[in-house]
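[job 4417] fold queue: 2 targets
>>> target A
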Amino acid sequence: MEKGLQHISKLQKCSRGSSEDVYLADRISKLPDEILEIILSHLRMKEAVRTSVLSRRWKDLWTFTTGSLDFDFGSKVLLLINEFDLSQILEPERAIYISRVNKIVNAHKGATIEAFKVEFDLQLSHKSYIDSWINFALRKRVRQLELKLVPADLVDVPVDLNNYYPFPDQSLGDSNISCLTSLNLDSVNLTGEVLLYLLSHCPFLEFIRISSSPGLVEVRVIAPCAKLKHLEIANCDHLKSLDISCAPNLTSLAYSGRYDTGLSFRNVPNLSNVSLGSFYCVYLVQRFHELPIALSQIEKLQLSLCTTFSPRFPEFPLLKNVKQLELRVQAFDHHSLLSCASVMEACPNLYRFSMRFDWLGNPEAREVHQRENCSMHKCLKELELVWFRGSTTDVELATYLLSSAPFLKKITADTRNPYLLLGTNSGRFEENVSAKECVRRLAEQLSPGAELLTL
């Protein structure tokens, strides 16, 4: 898209050049406005707005676009946090952000928009602005609505849950809310009653993600949600129950949160992808047979364990349809993760296994353990190890996996720290080199023809 925008600019500038250039420029200028608006609708918002400087004709064309209005400036705040005192720069940055969004919203003349995304640290005090943006998006019959109002600093500044922006209630009834196909809310105060209203008035909703909503106590999917395919609820600390009784086309469910949340599922015949995390996952691993869905349905299972204790995986019930298994475990080097094999052994038809290590602490030397009476994973073809650092725990697990999966075709060993977004220092670089050397030694156990990818 960026290259396309540069090409359009060059064509406009070359109109005073050679005859061939003029011919090319004329081909662009002869296109009707309706076609140019369609082209601009496929550009990112910033790129579309930049075309207004090309000529007088282009000045307002972007305002008729029907694509995505994406106000994602959250990354800028993260950079500012690292360089300035947050308390000094946050309010001015909020004012700049609100002004930019208002300017675009007030200028837009298109009849519809595909998506509307707001991502910034905004609170209850900015309610009037956010309400007006939501009403604008719904008037434009928006299909994808995303609000990420995540506080800029969740570590050093206590978060006041009473300052969260409350998502509007039934007052939305007169709008075009029924056009929504995707709803993504992060750090927005949404109640169970409002969510139920949305589910019953948005017949085309396919994707719902709710994260860090302090007001969400109960989730009920009781009206026929024929289109709903993906539901994700994460880190809603006051959620007591999640009841799905009528979602015949739901294929993907993700839940992470408190351990005592009551889950209930009925009439979900197509549910095949299940992801569980946080304290609920730690609790359920010990009682997996209590998971309130037909285990025979699951084809992809993701478990994310947030515990500083060595994970214990008891004998799992048979998961005969699971083809993909992904585990994410907080790991110390003095903890063995060989018990994870019991999950794999419950999946006799497992095709792909991924393990992500979230390391807590520095590498430590200890005695290497071996798993007794291990089963052979004859269907396992793909193996992925994320944040592999070549220490005792991950080498121990990798050795077991390579010896028990004789038909592996592809192994990916990612030695990078996923939490490092910018830069690296020499110590981390040396650790990375050491991990890659360890991968090379382990690769000697691979069968001929197996593909090894080291990152």
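>>> target B
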Amino acid sequence: MSNTTTTVAIDRETQLIALFNFLIQINSQCLDCFIFIIGNIGAVLTCIVFYQPAFRKSPCAMYFIASSIAQLFIFNCATFIRMIQYGYSVPVNSVPSWFCKIRFYIFYSSTVIARYNIIFASADRYACSSSDVRLRRWSSPKIAFRLIIINIIIWLLFYIQILITIDVKNNKCRINDVTISTYFYLYFLIENGIFPIVLLLFFGFRTIRNIHRSKQRILPNVINERSETMTIPGRLSRKETQLHKMLINQVIIYMILNIPYTVYSVYRTYFGLSSLTGSYALMDTFLNNLFFDLVYLVYALTFLNFILTSNIFRQKFKEIIQIKILRRRIVPTN
């Protein structure tokens, strides 16, 4: 009887191992591949559209361009490697130690640079929509350029620690010191999951409140709806209004797709799931990969969000297609 029970348990364990290996592989081949292709194309197109004269001098557009450039490193140094590792069984950890260090250094630094540029864009929309003249002065191309440079320098210097702490051991690229690994994991959980969501919620609600208040003001002046400049203090132009919508949608996508990984990471840390073995370890790997891919998906959906949200963005994208690809001349309409 005991032998039969043991055999059934072994067969069940074997089936679960095969199932989760299959799910891990399919997830990487499909979702990671989608993120890699759509993300790279979208990031390049986002940079091209926002570099057009209609957006070029907008601080919010500058933050989006900086974030998109950082996202290219995420897609090519993180998503691509994850795809070939789990989807096509390429032994990416059987490489020299320096490759392991550089890969994770680029991943962590580019992820946080992309994330904080979105946070800066959210803060810029809050300042831009404010009726306070002093606060609106913070929404300027000069300040945006300085913050982008400072953001890059700070995080490139901060994550130099990755070059020291991460190494290859037993064909795994990880932080081998348990104490350092625990503290770093908790830090990353807070900095990557909880802290950005709090900031984005804060600036998002403040921006919505500012816009709501601005709509309640009675303005006797007639405003040209097609104007792309702010003609009355506290009143947003059509372009600025659409930038608000684009960012608010991006913030919503960010929170929806980041919350699963944040929640699972807390659960994983609390119950010590990283020490699991057998099919349970594979189940943990599958869920961890899936939820982490949702974080990548946030950035991959950026261009699709912008193209669906903003009429001006769509219009400029169509103009680029017509002029640069189809070689057609745009005839201005009166």
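[job 4417] complete. Note on B: Residues 2-50 form the longest helix (49 residues).
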